[in-house]
């Protein structure tokens, strides 16, 4: 990286308004075009680039640019564009699911509610049947989304022991809930809320 670019990055991250404005004017159009080429949404492409520059201004103390400024900006726009596409997919799936739910008859909805209640009841029972430490490891991993290393640290056990408990918990739950396996995979994220 050249000395003048390092100086620009330093001034930018120190909050120098003239440098910020110069960088904004220099890169805005090309970053906008890049975002648009990925997401093909005019307003959202502009929003992504504006949010990037807002983040640089508001969180400058926490930003570390190790690459060239251009590489940093383009990489940021790329990842924000991908996040936007993921968000769209999730939103579209949710809308499809909502439309599907609305088209179902009350009897079908009631049947699904009964299935869900039965699944929840069996899941809670299977979970409570696990040995205490095995259950604790499973809950920390699946409901609190801790990594094995974090669980090991919290419980004062080795990562291998955490792996062993997780393997055991998954085997037991898989056996006891075999008839619900597909439903469990789809609904496990909803159960996180039940155990918080």
Any overview of this molecule?
- Helices cover 82% and strands 0% of the residues.
- The protein has 196 residues and is mainly alpha-helical.
- It has 2 domains: 3-95, Rna Polymerase Sigma Factor, Chain: A; 105-194, Winged helix-like DNA-binding domain superfamily/Winged helix DNA-binding domain (Arc Repressor Mutant, subunit A), CATH 1.10.10.10.
- Helix 2 runs antiparallel to helix 3 (42-58), helix 6 packs across helix 8 and helix 7 (148-155) packs across helix 8.
- The protein is elongated.
- It starts with a helix and ends with a helix.
- The model is unreliable at 107-111 (pLDDT under 50).
In a nutshell, what does this entry contain?
This protein has 196 residues and is mostly helical. The protein has helices spanning 3-13, 17-39, 42-58, 69-103, 106-129, 132-142, 148-155, 159-176, 181-194. It folds into two domains: 3-95, RNA polymerase sigma factor, region 2, helix turn helix motif (Rna Polymerase Sigma Factor, Chain: A, Orthogonal Bundle); 105-194, Orthogonal Bundle (Arc Repressor Mutant, subunit A), CATH 1.10.10.10.
Number of strands: 0
**CATH homologous superfamily title of the largest domain:** RNA polymerase sigma factor, region 2, helix turn helix motif
Largest sheet: none
- Secondary-structure-based class equals mainly alpha
Beta fraction of the residues? under 5%
Number of DSSP helices? 9
Question: What is the highest CATH level, the class of the largest domain?
Answer: Mainly Alpha
Helix coverage percent: over 70%
CATH architecture of the largest domain: Orthogonal Bundle
CATH topology of the largest domain, what is it called?
A: Rna Polymerase Sigma Factor, Chain: A
Rough outline: elongated
Q: Uncertain regions: pLDDT < 50 for 5+ in a row? A: 107-111
Radius of gyration, in angstroms, nearest whole number: 25 Å
- Average pLDDT works out at 81
End-to-end distance: 48 Å
- The helix/strand series, from N terminus to C terminus, equals HHHHHHHHH
**Number of separate domains:** 2
């Amino acid at each position: 990286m050249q000395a003048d670019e390092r100086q620009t990055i330093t001034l930018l991250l120190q909050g120098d308004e003239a440098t910020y404005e110069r960088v904004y004017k220099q890169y805005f159009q090309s970053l906008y075009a890049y975002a648009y080429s990925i997401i093909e949404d005019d307003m959202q492409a502009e929003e992504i680039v504006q949010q990037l520059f807002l983040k640089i201004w508001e969180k400058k103390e926490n930003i570390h640019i190790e690459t060239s400024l251009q590489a940093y900006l383009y990489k940021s726009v790329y990842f924000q564009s991908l996040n936007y596409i993921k968000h769209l997919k999730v939103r579209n799936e949710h809308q499809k699911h909502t439309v599907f739910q609305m088209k179902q008859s009350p009897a079908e909805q009631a049947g699904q509610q009964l299935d869900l209640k039965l699944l929840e009841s069996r899941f809670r029972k299977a979970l409570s049947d696990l040995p205490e430490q095995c259950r604790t490891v499973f809950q920390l991993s699946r409901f609190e989304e801790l990594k094995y290393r974090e669980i090991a640290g919290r419980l004062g056990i080795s990562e291998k022991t955490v792996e062993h408990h997780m393997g055991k918990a998954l085997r037991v739950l898989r056996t006891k809930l075999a008839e619900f396996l597909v439903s469990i995979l789809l609904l496990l994220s909803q159960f996180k809320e039940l155990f918080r």
